[in-house]
Amino acid sequence: MKAPALSQFLEQAVSLLGEGAVKTAPSDLEPYCIDWRKRFFGKAAAILFPSNTELLAKIVRLANQHQVALVPQGGNTGLSGGATPDSSGEQVLVSLARLQQVREQDAVNKTLTVEAGITLLRVQELADAMGLLFPLSLGAEGSATIGGNLATNAGGTAVLRYGNARDLCLGIEVVTPTGEIWNGLRRLRKDNTGYDLRDLFIGSEGTLGFITAAVLKLFPKPAGLVTALVRVGSATDALALLQIAQAQCDAALTGFEYMSAQSVQVVIDHFPEVAKHGAQIIGSAGSDLSDSVLIEISHPASEGAAKEMLESVIAEAITQGAASDAILAQSMSQTKALWHLRETITLAAAEDGVQVKLDIAVPVSKLAEFITEMDREMLAEFPEIRLHNFGHFGDGNLHYNLGAPQSLAKGLSAEQRRAAYRTYIEQNEERLRRKVHDRVVAFNGSISAEHGLGQLRKAEAWRIKSSVELGLMKTIKQALDPNGILNPGKVIS
Ligand code: FAD
Ligand code: 2HG
Ligand code: ZN
Fold first, then answer.
1. Which residues contact 268 (CB under 8 A, 6 or more apart)?
2. Closest CA to 43 of 59, 27, 63
């Protein structure tokens, strides 16, 4: 039995949005109540699909009236449980998926104004059709929405050149937690008229407002784009390679992704075809397999100039002993194959079973030292743990992921293996996570560079952040959302 206030809210939501936009059947709700990793299993009273900003604002006003908690959801690809409701069955999911309008295209100003439910991939295609580039790029781009990207301040693989989602956004439209509409869709590169509200909402993970539309910053398309997979001996080599690449390429260096040998091993284990192309350089199994770096150069002049630049970086790295071998993609299909290897790590890890997922950042200059020390300390206490770390080395962000010991899976079916890994991770997760986070704090780093706190890292944020910082965050939340109806239980609320 639903509480009377919730029932009334749902009845009024049906009259506002129509029956087709309010789903309450458990089978309809299920896919929206489980996160991408299947780590969080929530229960919602309903999911609503408003089709425009004004209707959403009315829903939010109604929710305040009836004290009903709302959970914003985009593509449900988030990795921190931010879009998953709690288990009470009393929260209501609000999907932004039907906000699909392209509001404005301005090739001269190099901006694109779109509604929140459009996927990142579609945004990239729209920019491409304008002869321009929207550089935000991540593995889940086919499903993740631009609203979700901004709400999580997503990073991805091009941050070292173009910045994260925040840097790629000039303005937003927001429905506040009390149901007002703020139109901040300014297409300006400069605007110093008071507090930066845009940047307050970006990265707030649906706790301070619904982002309903955004002005996105576009860039000229590079004339030449080349990628290489480079064999390195260690994270220390990767840092030396980064120094060489930055010195020689400056802004033309648009990607620098590190993959530990064990993070590639998990792709080989589950999707061997995907790892085939890279195998000739980085090895194919066991001790033969090395750490590697995927480098991307985007040159404004030509493909030839990009190639020349990358060849020179590789030659210098080999001379200095920072790299031992490399493969330079000779065609777009080879480029795609190398990126596919990198982007498949997350998928392969999900196939393997549950892991401890970490999303840390330290200053780039400290990243190699962090990895070396952390690996040593981790293996001393957990000798069989699998170090699946990989990530956006060029901007200091590493997914220091940890896989359960493979010995637990001996003789088991895939299903039994996943169950055994889940048990192991559930038993050890807190200890493992704390161990890494404590070292992150010692390095003056961040416990979430790009995935956000959601519900996964809330307790750790409370443990690590100062009372001043937490106090300021709580004051902002209270001021904007006095009834606490927006995404309760996430971030710090
Ligand atoms: P959801 O998962 O639906 O929601 C995420 C959070 O944002 C929730 O707290 C939700 O309440 C809130 N939210 C969603 N939409 C809105 C809105 N319109 N207004 C207000 N709040 C909203 N992330 C990276 O940063 N870099 C990566 O490289 C990367 N790679 C990934 C690869 C894979 C295979 C997967 C599965 C995920 C990856 N992610 C990555 C994580 C994820 O894709 C991003 O966090 C993405 O930005 C989430 O978008 P979404 O639309 O799916 O949001
Ligand atoms: C990536 O960089 C994503 O591919 C996912 O941020 C990271 O699987 C992960 O932990
Ligand atoms: Zn990432």
1. 275, 279, 284, 285, 289
2. 27
Of ligand 2's atoms, which has the minimum distance to the CA of residue 342?
4
Beta strands in 402-451 (DSSP E): 402-403
> How many alpha carbons fall within 13 Å on the CB side of residue 412?
15
Q: Is residue 485 part of a domain?
A: no
Contact 90, 28 (CB under 8 A): no
pLDDT value at residue 1: 62
Is the CB of 97 inside a 6 Å radius of any atom of ligand 1?
no
- Asked if 359 and 400 sit in the same domain, the reply is yes
Among the candidates 43, 78, 95, a domain finishes at: 95
Phi, psi of 194 (to 5 degrees): 105, -165
Domain boundary among 189, 220, 251: 220
* pLDDT value, residue 112: 98
Output the CA 401–ligand 2 centroid distance in Å.
9
Q: Total domain count for the chain? A: 4
What is the model's pLDDT at position 287? 74
Amino acid at 428: N
Condensed to tens digits (0 to 9), the pLDDT of residues 381-403 reads: 999 999 999 999 999 999 999 99
User: How far is the C-alpha of 225 from the C-alpha of 299, rounded, in Å?
Assistant: 6
Q: Please choose from 257, 389, 451 the residue to mutate so as to test ligand 2's pocket, defined by most ligand atoms within 8 A of CB.
A: 451
- What's the first-to-final CA gap in the chain, in angstroms? 27
Q: Is 85 in the pocket of ligand 1 (CB under 6 A)?
A: no
Please list the ranges in the chain whose pLDDT falls under 50: none
Question: Distance between CA atoms of 70 and 65, rounded to whole angstroms?
Answer: 13
Q: What is the residue with the minimal CA distance to atom 6 of ligand 2? A: 156
- Tell me how far the alpha carbon of residue 450 lies from the centroid of ligand 3, in angstroms: 7
Distance 155 CA to ligand 3 centre (A): 7
Rounded Cα–Cα distance for residues 249 and 232 (Å): 19
Range of the domain at 161: 102-220
Cα 287 to ligand 3 centre (Å): 26
In contact, 74 and 144? CB cutoff 8 Å: yes
Contact 172/214 with Cβ under 8 angstroms? yes
Q: Do the strands 224-232 and 291-299 form a parallel or antiparallel pair, or are they unpaired?
A: antiparallel
* 53 and 114 co-located in one domain: no
